[in-house]
Specification:
The structure holds two protein chains of two kinds. Chain A is an all-alpha fold. Chain A has 13 helices and no strands. Chain A has one domain (17-295): ABC transporter involved in vitamin B12 uptake, BtuC. The chains are: A mainly alpha, B alpha/beta.
Chain lengths: 308, 357
């Protein structure tokens, strides 16, 4: 393998991992607050279709991204109303949200199938993109990739260093205690759920406006589900989510590159690579079973009824 | 998923019954494996359904159920369509073969048409399209347009239908450019735009400058457009996704076939048969050719297309040579339909080993 090929593989790895990183970061925050939202796939698709429609209508990609984020957040608000306010079963509500989002996005986007747009183009950062190899791998992406790094930094910092992070965690670990010290459990959960929705919407916008600037039904192709698994295997740690997302991206790319290099293996086996590699690496990292258990938000999936 | 498709099925059936008209129109049902908005396989079938409606007006009444899983769910939907009084039912995916046959045995008066299968009955016919003829023509264009002599093919799964397409494309390219080689990357999916795009990028990285795909989205066209390469679409005209890159596309045109079958039922002349139409009947065709294609290449494509239409030549006329250089079909011979339907080897010019599915 020559250096150009490796550079290109790493470049593509980041591109492939970005939607997973965005979705999984959002879901992690949501789960940290004790809410399990299985509606990722539906929210991603809604973000993708609404973002695409807004871009076509306004002719402005920035508006498209904003619309995608809002669409994801609105979808999660619907989930929040059912699962937080009405105390509905979170698993069932999340699954319903995925089915609803898949269907609604197909309905909304029906007349946008086959419409072409000029997608979001790469933004070569000044100076740093000139650095050989590194510049190409890290600093020649579209703006949403850089945004995903900023968001990663914020989430990481939030849970490492800030009161806000602690607040979200306490609500997810022990809502009764959090309530007792005067935190509004419901309000915090709503905000965490909406952050998750906004991130899923952003990932949808990334797919339909930057990665493959087009709209077709079900274009997220299961990424929402992979991101959900990623959160668990990364044991709710932002840095492991990033590692897992890029590992998955790298293995997905290798599935294709190895074939091109004439590597003789069943493509079906190679197609399993991303799933297998990601699970194994993250499991090794979290090999201490008790530690992994400890990092699961204790109140995850449990609805909270405020004591009146 | 089960309950979802049930809702969809019920909704579609309710929709059709409420439209019932005074005179007795011929009721035609369609079962689709994907959504009508996939811009690919199912979209093409639905265009065919619309064509029948446009041509026959209120003499027919059509219903469709989309995103129907193959297997048990498929059988239930087909049975439902049959019991709701549809006279003719098209089931448009390979996996509906056994379910269709099962229902056909129960509903003797209903006519069934199954796409891409091989099982027939008195009231069940089969049909497919010779898309590989279009592939061959696009291969001619690719062979002429490439500068690197490397062509890239994003494929889904190694089944005869896909292998036939790869071989037809390669045969066309080789005919006009003996130095050409076709690189295949198996995406192991029919539909994942992001993955299809990465597969295309991989091929471009390995020197391919003309791409085509046997997957369902237009992502490969977009990748080619972004990298200043050429691409050949599949299923439908995908030029909107890359005006410069899109040279042409192999398109399906089911309308005339569906019209013929509907008319036959109306006339009482319908009979169970195995139809495999292609270029000659317009079921397979090419999208408009890009102006980047030189006039002499355009003329060559038209000439070969006319020959395929007239039946004076076939795509897999001998010599058909496999990768080992052995003549599978000697000069003067031609591959019969049975061999075409069971294609399990690459022809000379394809790179790499054919994976066993």
């Amino acid at each position: 393998m020559d250096i150009e090929l490796i550079t290109n593989i790493l470049f593509a790895t980041i591109r492939t991992g970005t939607p997973l990183l965005l979705i999984a970061l959002g879901e992690m925050v949501c789960e940290k607050s004790g809410v399990l939202n299985l509606g990722q796939e539906g929210m991603v698709l809604m973000g993708a279709v609404v973002g695409f429609m807004a871009s076509v209508i306004t002719g402005n990609l920035g508006m498209g991204i904003i619309a995608a984020v809002l669409a994801g957040a609105l979808m999660s608000l619907l989930f929040g109303f059912l699962a937080i306010s009405l105390v509905a079963n979170q698993v069932a509500t999340g699954l319903a949200l995925t089915i609803f989002g898949t269907g609604l996005s197909a309905f909304l986007g029906a007349s946008y199938v086959g419409v072409g747009i000029e997608g979001i183009t790469a933004w070569h950062l000044p100076l740093v993109s000139e650095i050989p190899v590194i510049g190409k791998i890290f600093f020649s992406h579209d703006p949403l990739v850089y945004l995903s790094w900023v968001l990663f930094g914020l989430v990481y910092w939030c849970f490492k260093r800030t009161r806000l992070g602690l607040t979200i965690r306490s609500v997810g670990e022990n809502p009764e205690a959090a309530n007792a010290i005067g935190l509004s459990v419901l309000q915090i959960r709503y905000l965490a759920v909406m952050f998750g929705g906004a991130m899923a919407g952003l990932a949808g916008g990334y797919l339909s406006l930057a990665y493959t600037p087009l709209w077709t039904e079900g274009m997220s192709a299961g990424r929402g589900w992979i991101a959900l698994a990623l959160v668990v295997f990364a044991s709710w740690k932002a840095e492991r989510i990033m590692l897992g997302a890029y590992l998955f991206g790298a293995a997905s790319i290798m599935h294709l590159v190895l074939q091109g290099l004439g590597f003789e293996a069943s493509p079906n086996l190679l197609a399993m690579l991303p799933y297998g590699a990601t699970i194994i690496v993250l499991m090794v990292l979290a090999n201490d079973a008790i530690k992994a258990k400890l990092s699961t938000p204790l109140a995850l999936g449990q609805p909270y009824r405020p004591q009146l | 998923m089960k309950s979802l498709s049930k809702i969809l099925a019920t909704a579609a059936l309710v929709g059709s019954t409420s439209l019932a008209q005074a005179e007795d129109p011929l009721k035609i049902g369609f079962v689709y494996v994907g959504p009508t908005g996939d811009a690919g396989w199912t979209y093409a079938h639905d265009e065919g359904r619309k064509y029948v409606e446009a041509q026959l007006g209120d003499k027919v009444e059509t219903t469709y159920v989309e995103s129907v899983p193959e297997g048990a769910d498929g059988e239930r939907v087909i049975r439902q369509l049959a019991s709701k009084g549809n006279d003719l039912i098209f089931t448009t995916s390979f996996g509906y073969m056994n379910p269709t046959l099962k229902v056909a045995k129960k509903f003797k008066k209903v006519k069934f048409e199954h796409a891409s299968g091989y099982k027939r009955d008195k009231n069940m016919g089969t049909y497919f399209t010779r898309a590989y003829q279009g592939r061959y023509l696009t291969g001619l264009i690719a062979g002429k347009m490439t500068k690197s002599n490397v062509l890239g093919y994003v494929a889904s799964f190694p089944i005869p239908e896909v292998i036939r397409g790869i071989n037809a494309f390669t045969k066309g390219a080789k005919e006009v450019n003996p130095d050409v080689q076709v690189k295949v990357v198996w995406a192991s999916t029919w539909y994942d735009p992001a993955k299809e795009r990465e597969a295309a990028e991989t091929l471009i990285l390995q020197g391919a400058d003309v791409l085509t795909q046997h997957t369902d989205s237009a992502a490969v066209i977009q990748a080619a457009e972004a990298r200043g390469k050429y691409a050949l679409g599949y299923h439908s005209d995908m030029s909107v996704y890359g005006a410069k890159a899109h040279l042409t596309a192999t398109v399906h045109n089911w309308g005339p076939l569906y019209l013929k079958k509907a008319q036959a039922v109306l006339d009482g002349t319908w009979a169970s048969e195995d139809l495999w139409p292609g270029i000659a009947d317009g079921t397979t065709d090419l999208a408009p050719l890009n102006d980047a294609i030189p006039a002499d290449v355009k003329a060559l494509v038209e000439e070969k297309k006319a020959a395929l239409k007239a039946g004076t030549m076939r795509v897999f006329d001998g010599p058909v040579v496999n990768q080992a250089g052995e003549e599978v079909i000697p000069a003067g011979g031609t591959m019969d339909d049975g061999a075409l339907l069971g294609f399990d080897f690459y022809v000379d010019g394809v790179e790499g080993k054919l994976p066993q599915s």
